[in-house]
Amino acid sequence: MSLPVTHIPPRPSTGHPLGDAATQAFAEDAGPERALLDDCVHCGFCLPTCPTYVLWGEEMDSPRGRILLMDLADKGEIGLDASTVRHWDSCLGCMACVTACPSAVQYDRLIEQTRAQVEERFDREGSDQRFRNALFAVLPHHRRMTLVAAPLVAYRASGLQRLVRRSALYRRLPVRLRQLEALSPIVTWAALREQAPAHSAPAAEPTLRVAMLTGCVQRAIFGDVNAATARVLTAYGCEVVAPREQACCGALELHAGRQRSAKERARALIWVLDDPSIDRIVVNSAGCGSTLKEYGEMFRDEPSLASRAEAFAAKVCDVHELLAELEPPAQLRPLEISVAYHDACHLAHAQGVRSQPREVLTSIPGVTLREIPDAAICCGSAGIYNLINPEPAAELGRLKAAHVRSVAPDALAAANPGCLLQISANLGAEGEPIPTFHPIELVDASLRGEDAAGFLARRRALLKSAGSAT
To answer: pTM to 2 decimals?
Structure first.
């Protein structure tokens, strides 16, 4: 099923090239790898899977078109100007094209390598650069995120959010500010304070010893999901360590082209989580897991760290991958609900993890799974995309919400914090709110013997307290 879309053009990129980038887009021995560019045979299988091509129907806003621009730039036939940067900026990095490509083109690596050069060699103008800097001054820092999230929770809990969203003033806010407000986390004070314990052990002898990534956005806003993950892992027989000193994995910066700072965060995380006694490194956030699995590639040119990073990456698994390997515990109790499962792009396309979350959900007695039409199309979150390109992101969010509603589920499950924020904001636009959960929350609810009706009612009431943001 496909829905009609409104033509919303990409936000123009403004700025100017630095140094010789006007005539030579990429620095020598930098930018997208020639061998990877040559893999593309321009067949066009990627076009119908690309969200921006679906929205605009423009060749240069498809993976094939963007690769052509990379190729021309690499050959020195075009420089790094605002028009070219705009097409690369408009890419969500969802990697649906990677799944669709019959030639196994590594578009994910190509766009990351290209964006790294854009950030090095293109001087963004004024408010755009300040806005991006402000985002990265907060998002990768869980303590700063918590400081921002706390007043937003108060804003909703006080009823002020509903009043603001009903006012004429709301429509007059700048679109980026309105998008920031629309994505305000709809969580409780208790959820904001809850954290995964530094150490958890099962009652019996553990089958595995695992380290758990707590993340930055996940730790600051969805601390209750981290806590639920630790409980579920111990119920499945794992000993869990979640070191307090760990910080951001670098995913947000890597996907935005800020390669240097991303590598520094990755290096620090390896030092914290790398332990010979650890069997697996478990991740419950799709974008983070995708990046951790890339650490070997990230440090391949650093002899002092290359082998260690590769061994580290080999231990990384998504939490659903691990749970699907293990025997479900006997204490899983019925949870009579129908669930629409959303494939987070960095889980399905980047990691190839599709069946395992579904296996985990359907292992819960009483859960009925409902598949979403056009599931491969991104919801519009895509790291910081919905903040820097709010109009097309909102359109994709509305499409995703409409597809979710078309299967009439009791709840939606998604394994990425950005997806949960984005889809929640759009599911609250009309009609009865559809509660959203991380799949692990549903497993945890089953283990605790939650009553399905009360469990859903509490989350619906929370969503209603915010009011509509559209």
So the answer is: 0.91
